[in-house]
Request: fold
Amino acid sequence: MIPRHLLIAVAALLVLVVSMGFYLRHMRLRAGQLESPAADTSPVAPPAAGPTETVTLYVADDALGGLRARSAQIPLPGGRQQRAEDLLRALLRIYQQPGAAHPLSPAADIRAIYLVDPDAAVIDLNAAFADQHRSGILSEQLTVNSLVETLGVNVPGIQRVNILVEGQTRDTLAGHADLSDSFDVRTIEQVSSP
Amino acid sequence: MRWSSETQFRVPSSQFSATQSPLRTDNREPGTIIKKVLAVLLTSVTFLSALPSADNSDKHVSVYSTVAVYSVPVLDRGGREYVGLLELLEPLGRVTSQSAGQRWKLRFDTVDAEFTAGKTRAKIHGHDADFPAPFLIENSRGLVPLSALSALLPRFLGGHVNFHEGARRLFVGDVAIQPSFRLDAANSPRLFLTFSAPVNPTIATEPGKLRMIFKRDPIVSPGSQSISFDNKVITHASYSEGNGDAELDVSASEPLMASFSSDRKTIAISSAQPASATPSAATPAPQNSSSALPAPTTNSGNSRLLAVVDPAHGGEERGSALTDTLAEKDVTLGFARILRHELEQRGFAVTLLRDADTNSTLDQRAAAANVAHAAVYICLHAVSQGSGARVYTALLPVEGPSNGIFLPWNAAQSPALPTSRVVSAAIVAEMQNRNFPVHASSASLRPLNNVMMPAVAVELAPGENGIDDLTSGNYQQRAAAAVAEGVATIRDQLGTQP
Reply:
């Protein structure tokens, strides 16, 4: 015969298990209710086939020794930061096409753009962008001018631009163009026209 | 490598001006003057530490060739004098080297050579070559005994090589200039020294003697070490050479002065007494004209403007890979040596910030130019894409907060930037006159931002013959002549040297 005190202990444990099960189910339902509204407000990638916007890209031309303004229709989100990143990625794609007038490595990419002050932007390039960039004053300066002017013209309010590589400051892009200081958008606009 | 003895340590406080110094000095209060002096001293002490050691200029061998005139340092190893073979051959042709353990391979144009560390025999163009002391390898550099150059170099260069070993002067090809003397004693005695090519000596005077030191001219003995003149005023002249230089001394019973003809092939030496200094109407040698050539060089030539030429990159920092075997650092060095010659021909004193395969930081380069108080700074680059040349002025960064009387280091160029643009425009105009393709722009290129004087960067790109142009002496000569002439045309706007 099972002792009485053991029966009482097992019954108490069963009650406890069932209670915990109900409490767990309750907590999961509550957690689900909290997550649902947050998911609605998170940023989403811009739709590739969504509404497009006309922007002006300043495209480097080695033979010209300057920048050419080129209009382009690209889908852009409303946020400044995402807009800046998409702009420069669109610019980068031009340089990565075969026969580009200012070729850049297919592995080159914009890691991120940070809008750190109302008027300052930081472009973070990946390592391949800089490591595989052609070395030379003109080539490097045209790349810098192209990035800075495209950003300054299409993202309202940006006056200064810094360029990082893999999140770190770097002395030069590929041995010549100095990246240790901010670039003034207006100055670049003045000098970059051929 | 070798620094110009005329310009190395001149740091007078009076040189700081409101237009060329990053120090803003706009009043004459005593406190401001003290601040200014202190600032100059501090800046000078800081920047002087960036200069190469004076020991580097102790021993060198001067090389004279039709392609380039340059000098390379001589190193003492085990009681013998050595020289870097790669550095010696670099300006004379296309040269590459490869070090593997104890073996060191060198290719000069089409000549292959193989050396072994510690051995006194090498294989050059398939033949054995012996030299009097072991070959050395240091940091992948091949060092050969200086005394072996007479035997080694003809095997690489193929032509006539004359090495004055005692004086460390190496003549490649038929480049020697022999002076001739003619004394005109008809009126006031005048001694005419005539040369077969333009010369540019440093001239110094001392009681009873006028000393001409030829650092970059392939002057050789006039036939006799000493020449006596049958004259009471100008008594005799003597020739000597040593440590890469040649020297002509003229002795006299009166103080002397020298003047150059406009083509710099004749130096007229006469008494400095007023009556004697008046040129005779019958004097056959032309007098110094008012052309773009320098003023008469008297004493140590302090009236000459100083140009600092900076061959970019160097050492382990190779710059652009122009081809698989050609680095930007090598092209800039060769180009700089030619530009130095062209500027000197136009009366500038020139300092190269490197004259060998060495590297300095960008801050060190800027500091050296600032300490020297150069009238103009020219940075040289090379690139494999494009054509012709590009001339750049500084693209200054966003100006940071002012630090009292100081300008930010990265904006030190700002007071001189207008003149820099004048220099750039003059070079561009001269290149266009010579049908040399050229493009002018601004670039965020250090150390242009950090130098206080007018500053430009010249990037040499290939010409009609493609990448081979970058190592072509003729192509570099054309570009260098245009740059030098452009700078010379606006010399009046470059200020004066102390």
